[in-house]
């Protein structure tokens, strides 16, 4: 989509369990994305990252899109959408091709990645994302940019992320029912990594933990490349549920109490602080110590971080994430979360605030918008790459067209 002037429009649609957010950006190749509009709406049609009610999800997407269109003053036709859920799987694959002209070209690079992607995956799964980790030319390892290098044999190590075909189709169906096209479906942890991680962290080794309402999405990077992705079906909604049960209060009030007063580390809540808790039915509200609330919340976060740590160990990269843990997502926005995570992981932990964008940066500089902003950055890079590719192929076809015309004219 073309925006004002020569800038192009790009839209990120974060389809989350608790909310759906549409973020509109403008970009020109080589420049950071400028955020010009944002719209969000509560989502009731998803459970643990997966669509369970199409009608309800369509309405929420529609509202978020309308709000974003109004703010940005544009018409949205296509989106880069996020996908999450415990159906997400990952594998590291390997491809080998001969180098045709003894020098690696863009074509060779594309061929070797295609060769690495040609692995058998279950019939009910589809490829969502692939990223080259490194290239090897004639046995020489650790090459990041192979184009222009000389050699005979090119190898690529590639990280593939797959997801359930039905889950992906349901998201596409919801978006197309709103009259929009899906440019690409991107795993949410991959999208968030574009917004919150620095290149130094990717090089040193880092684990991104995006804690949403329905899922906790994990992405592990070492030596500048994505090595492992996972999605756990435990997140902020479980915390809300625990509060509702323990304090005997309706879920909507439990969510409000969690956002306003919850603390993930009981020792940070002072004994004299009290909160008002609405009761179920027409019983009068009660006053409780804030520490009581923290004692409900802390065990759930401890369990969550222990599961993340188990996943990190299972991946085999635990000793390689020297830059530590970066937390993103709405459920990381709580007092005491960083301190508790540091106690459990014994690593440096920081909150990942979206960066690398301009415009309404102050509105989106909140870990809640990590996925939405990441989708914009990912989308702008894809569009730039596609434009460069089509210019090249366009030039080639133009030249070939002239040759064909000349031949036709001669005979």
From TrEMBL:
SMART domains: FtsA. It is found in: Cell membrane. One of its GO terms (cellular component) is cytoplasmic side of plasma membrane. InterPro entries: ATPase_NBD, Cell_div_FtsA, FtsA/MreB, SHS2_FtsA. It comes from the Bacteria. Keywords: Cell cycle, Cell division, Cell membrane, Membrane. Gene3D superfamilies: 3.30.420.40. One of its GO terms (biological process) is FtsZ-dependent cytokinesis. Residues 10-196 form the SHS2 domain. It is a peripheral membrane protein. Self-interacts. Interacts with FtsZ. NCBIfam families: ftsA, PRK09472.1. Cell division protein that is involved in the assembly of the Z ring. May serve as a membrane anchor for the Z ring. Belongs to the FtsA/MreB family. This is Cell division protein FtsA.
């Amino acid at each position: 989509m073309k925006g004002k002037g020569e800038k192009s429009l790009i839209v990120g649609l974060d389809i989350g369990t608790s909310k759906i957010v549409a973020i509109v950006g403008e970009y020109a190749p080589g420049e950071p994305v400028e955020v010009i509009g944002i719209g969000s709406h509560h989502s009731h049609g998803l459970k643990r990252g997966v669509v369970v009610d199409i009608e309800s999800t369509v309405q929420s997407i529609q509202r978020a899109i309308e709000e974003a269109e109004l703010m940005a003053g544009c018409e949205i036709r296509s989106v880069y959408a996020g996908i999450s859920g415990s159906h997400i799987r990952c594998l590291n694959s390997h491809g080998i091709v001969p180098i045709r002209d003894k020098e690696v070209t863009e074509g060779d690079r594309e061929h070797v990645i295609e060769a690495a992607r040609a692995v058998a995956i279950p019939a009910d799964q589809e490829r969502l994302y692939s990223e080259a980790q490194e290239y090897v030319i004639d046995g020489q390892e650790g090459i990041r940019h192979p184009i222009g290098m000389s050699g005979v044999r090119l190898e690529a190590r590639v990280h593939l992320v797959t997801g359930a075909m039905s889950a992906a189709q349901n998201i596409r169906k919801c978006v197309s029912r709103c009259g929009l096209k899906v440019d690409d479906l991107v795993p949410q942890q991959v999208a968030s990594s574009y917004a919150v991680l620095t290149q130094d962290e990717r090089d040193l080794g880092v684990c991104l933990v995006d804690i949403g309402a329905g899922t906790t999405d994990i992405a592990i990077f070492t030596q500048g490349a994505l090595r492992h992705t996972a999605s756990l079906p435990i997140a902020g909604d479980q915390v809300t549920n625990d509060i509702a049960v323990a304090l005997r209060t309706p879920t909507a009030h439990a969510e409000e109490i969690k956002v306003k007063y919850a603390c993930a580390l009981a020792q940070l809540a002072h004994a004299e602080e009290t909160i008002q808790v609405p009761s179920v039915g027409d019983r009068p509200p009660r006053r409780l110590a804030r520490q009581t609330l923290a004692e409900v919340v802390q065990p759930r976060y401890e369990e969550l971080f222990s599961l993340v740590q188990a996943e990190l160990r299972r991946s085999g990269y635990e000793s390689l994430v020297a830059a530590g843990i970066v937390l993103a997502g709405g459920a990381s926005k709580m007092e005491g979360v960083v301190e508790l995570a540091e106690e459990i992981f014994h690593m440096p932990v920081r909150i990942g605030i979206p960066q690398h964008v301009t415009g309404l940066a102050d509105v989106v500089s909140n870990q809640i918008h990590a996925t939405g902003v990441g989708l914009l950055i990912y989308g702008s890079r894809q569009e730039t790459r596609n434009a460069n590719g089509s210019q090249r192929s366009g030039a080639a076809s133009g030249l070939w067209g002239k040759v064909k015309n000349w031949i036709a004219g001669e005979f």
